[in-house]
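Build the 3D complex.
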Amino acid sequence: MMYEIVSTVKRDYIIDLARQGKRVDGRALDQYREISVEKNFVEPAQGSALVKLGNTQVLVGVKLERVEPFPDEPSSGVLIVNAELLPLASPTFEPGPPDENAIELARVVDRGIRESKAIDLEKLGIKPGEEVWAVFVDIHVLDHDGNLIDASALGAIAALWSMKPPDVEDWKLPEFPISKKPVAVTIAKINERLMVDPCLDEENVMEARVTITTTEDGSICAMQKGGVGCFTPEELEAAYELARAKAEELRKFIG
Amino acid sequence: MMYEIVSTVKRDYIIDLARQGKRVDGRALDQYREISVEKNFVEPAQGSALVKLGNTQVLVGVKLERVEPFPDEPSSGVLIVNAELLPLASPTFEPGPPDENAIELARVVDRGIRESKAIDLEKLGIKPGEEVWAVFVDIHVLDHDGNLIDASALGAIAALWSMKPPDVEDWKLPEFPISKKPVAVTIAKINERLMVDPCLDEENVMEARVTITTTEDGSICAMQKGGVGCFTPEELEAAYELARAKAEELRKFIG
Amino acid sequence: MMYEIVSTVKRDYIIDLARQGKRVDGRALDQYREISVEKNFVEPAQGSALVKLGNTQVLVGVKLERVEPFPDEPSSGVLIVNAELLPLASPTFEPGPPDENAIELARVVDRGIRESKAIDLEKLGIKPGEEVWAVFVDIHVLDHDGNLIDASALGAIAALWSMKPPDVEDWKLPEFPISKKPVAVTIAKINERLMVDPCLDEENVMEARVTITTTEDGSICAMQKGGVGCFTPEELEAAYELARAKAEELRKFIG
Amino acid sequence: MEKPERLIVDGKRLDGRAPDELRPLRIKAGVLKRADGSAYVELGRNKILAAVYGPREMHPRHLQQPDTAVLRCRYNMAPFSVEERKRPGPDRRSVEISKVAREALEPVVFLELYPRAAIDVFIEVLQADAGTRTTGITAAAVALADAGIPMRDLVAAVAVGKVDGTIVLDLTSEEDQWGTTDMPVAIMPRKKLITLLQMDGHFTGEEFRQALSLAFKGCEQIYEAQKQALRERYSVKREEGE
Amino acid sequence: MEKPERLIVDGKRLDGRAPDELRPLRIKAGVLKRADGSAYVELGRNKILAAVYGPREMHPRHLQQPDTAVLRCRYNMAPFSVEERKRPGPDRRSVEISKVAREALEPVVFLELYPRAAIDVFIEVLQADAGTRTTGITAAAVALADAGIPMRDLVAAVAVGKVDGTIVLDLTSEEDQWGTTDMPVAIMPRKKLITLLQMDGHFTGEEFRQALSLAFKGCEQIYEAQKQALRERYSVKREEGE
Amino acid sequence: MEKPERLIVDGKRLDGRAPDELRPLRIKAGVLKRADGSAYVELGRNKILAAVYGPREMHPRHLQQPDTAVLRCRYNMAPFSVEERKRPGPDRRSVEISKVAREALEPVVFLELYPRAAIDVFIEVLQADAGTRTTGITAAAVALADAGIPMRDLVAAVAVGKVDGTIVLDLTSEEDQWGTTDMPVAIMPRKKLITLLQMDGHFTGEEFRQALSLAFKGCEQIYEAQKQALRERYSVKREEGE
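Done.
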């Protein structure tokens, strides 16, 4: 995601490994790093999840707040996804408002949730035209060792599935209205090879990446190509098959 | 408006030409470049005009939006003029919020419209104290070859004269309430000579400029001196006569 | 407050003087510079005071404005303190939004007023839940020769004691509800010595400062250590005694 | 506007097009005087201007790259380009589009020829129908060529999607709003490589394959129009003795 | 405040002045310790402070000019200077005034003597009646001279306008609000050149000529007060042996 | 939440602690991979992460100091760390806390060893109870040590206050909200020097002395936990052969 300067030796080594179908940390091309998801990490949030993907750590908190609805959807709740690339997470992150990488990260996670219709926003009205629930999904990146998109998307959907209803009178639903489990799988392309879950060293040398978000039935709800390289149509079809298979594995961590 | 670095040779050439009463593009001192005004260029705007002044291109769009009135004028509409010096229009323009040049441009155009009372803002109330029409005049500078003020002011007034009433129930007026045609004429001073419609090469060497906005009866509704040079009182009187005469020519393009 | 580059010679001189219990401008360690407070300097403000502390000049203006109350205190007025370190006051101040020094200055002054309960904010409601009075205290630093905190705090409380009630129907109080006179005294530490009211030369070499705000009965309502040095507990106790004694002197200028 | 009952009737879309048909397309290169290269594209009701400056000196200097030029891209919508006035300045959507547009264009530019330089691409949406990002990329590629910047290939872009269960080419705003899926795609036409891919909505794997194939078909047509515009521009330049 | 029925009665304005009369004017040079030059001006109820720093090193460096100093100007209103509290920080009005004030002052400063340097002028409106930009320019010119910066001439500034059909000098806020026309003018008094001219409202050509002539007359008086303030400052400095 | 009638009943606080008792404390060093040093601290319900980068090259360059490193500090609260969502980005409170935290840490760091360098300290509040600034400083000191930066001493910090007339150690949010006084203190434990002192509320001189003394007592305990965390971290590192 963030391109860091890598020594030519390391670059050549990783690219050459890829040619042999190998990876810098010994994984198979279709293998994720070790995954852990700790839900309800943060008390003041209605839902939260701390995701570790190898050394990458992302904390996602979800809060419900009362807001005015949009004029064109007066009785529908609102989904707001925000991502902060905290300067404590990487020497390349700087304090300040979200840059294009943070914005892309938030928007890719947002589309996965929104387009899968995982949350039934229609049920999150309060007083039509006056007040609805806003679902604030805050992605807090704590340690950046690559593949922030998958870690963040997994954290967001896990946090949403851990939601406690707010303790207020005008909340009428038995539970938070969530029904689907979209999962983002990011595939990097290095030296013509596709590999899932790129670590930072791999991101720094990859030509391009594509993130494919699928739901339980294997259908695609969102995609995003990133990086300055290209894909052939055949590569994209292969990437889809990879994404669909790996999403099933990751989905187990949502709980 | 924007001072660019010009080679000394070119500078000396233009200044010397001025001494002879001549200009770098062969025009007479009181001659505008070729003018074209294409109204209704943009559909989503209630009014619009694409103005070309030689190579200078400015697109002005006008939109009506419902806003809260100002407390001291609860039943009066609101005029808001904004100018963007787009970085595609000149190598010297940079992305970002309007700088002092963009702000001055917007405010000079604003004053010409406002002080001439061209728009009857009193008629643009909706519910007194609650809702009035705001007239957003957005000046979009596309290609900067000098004299942005005159091009923008002409575009703004032409766009306002092309307004289609909005298709809503609570719009009661037969047409947009506009009644005057203020026209801004900018006069540059180079080597003691006054000349209208400076092109960019001339702006880069001029000592100062003065913009005089006049209405149909020849009276002045707004003036603005710019640049780091000076004018004598006699020069300003001559500039007024020039402005008044040229405004009559330009006014024909408002339609 | 702002650390400026000081020649080594001057630095050594001031530090050596401190060892002898002396100061660069001949004052005693517990002596303020000449103080003057001119109240009602500015007419459009409900209250104002121009404070001079030697060459340091700070103008404080207080204005009352109608605002919405905070949801958790629907009938209580609001205190807002803002400080501007104007670039005309020092070669080290730059235009722009308040930096950490300006923010600290405003917040230290704010806490002195707020925590002493000098203003009875409860009385500044208008319509509970809808409208209350906001007390805007604007600190305008005009000339920075050191010890801006004490000058600003004195200016703020003097301006508040000079308040004219606004001339509106719904103001029911006989006068502005102020009842206490908190006074901030800043003590600098140089070469193990404590001294009040550091001038700029002293601020530039001091190890640390502590500001202690006390009310008429000698109790403390706010404290703030600043600078990158340290204090012993004994020094802080001595600083408190100094602050209590000097506050009595300064309080006379509030009027 | 209310959602229409059906968006495709008797195999025709609301504007009369077949599912695999582009909207009317017009491309003109070299429309601005100050820019080093420029292009104006109308696709349906989209009116989009692109300009290129560079290679030029990179400011701020610490962003200079010792071994390559840096491509920068800014996508911007005019306040009056949409129904409800857009506040000037970048928002989150335009920041993301600027990023993916840059990544869509960068593969074709020989950046390594201009170490330390900047090449700036500005995309201005004057009037927006659906597909402004892809139309903007189409325009930007022509503007890059017009600026004389050495390129491996052009880039042609178009959106495909799913409307009433049918895979369609080049969505209108109504189709974007009421349809199921929107997938913007950019392609290097000669090399058959995909440089931009985004998607939101719903596709099965099979639908994705069909849509991708339709995007290639649409981009071929756009590519022809781009080349034609550059030929016209070149002949004008030659006449003018440039 | 309601609009008064008439703003001029029996040839006298609401504050008793004749049409061609200035408000009470007080100028003091050298009022700040830290600034290199400073001045305080009261004109009617205006209270305005100006300070000058420089010539000093220009930051950021890329704004340095190899053959000249750069004059920068910042006009700012204190939040409490007007009836309704002004939010701190620049707004569009103050950005424009800062620009025209700089252009009004620059013609008199020998910038070419200090290549690469910056000269910063800060105008602070502590209490505002009408005419803050012109009064600020008047103060800034004195502050520049107090800073010892070589100047071709001073700059004196005042607003003229039309009120109840009469051309008047030095408008009050009421006259500015309810009158027809406001025209701020700055002048180099010795050279008789106009360095600032703005106007909004309504003037015939003839009224413009009259107003300009009245502005010159007002500026003459202001110029005398500026010179007097600098003489006083100089004698104080001499006594202090500076 | 309503204000409770009493915050101390029979010498016990609402959470059962004695007035001079800390909340449960847990410190772990070396919790982040990318940072040069890091620490995670839980104190009661506070969850706070600190990271250190540096010594590293200072950007922007004009902030480099020729004879010393520059310590920078940023205190930040996660949007979900408090009951009502906090808007991302610095506010006035966090800017002030960043400043006083830096001033609390700077006395122990041998900055003069790294001329021109920057040392960056980031404090992230993931879950906030009262005392986030002091807990953040406690974490930051451990992170600085974990980064291997030479230090004169550690810094341990805690808040003391007055609740129901009693001087208490380590306030909870309820005690902070409904109590009389809050006084955050940071200490160099070996040298017995105070590096941070803030206070708001009400103290007599005598109460201030008592509170300061109690703060020292609390910081001693925190210091022991800090050292323990660093010992554990060191033994892990040794095992890993780092």
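The helical segments of chain B are 8-19, 100-115, 148-161, 200-205, 233-251.
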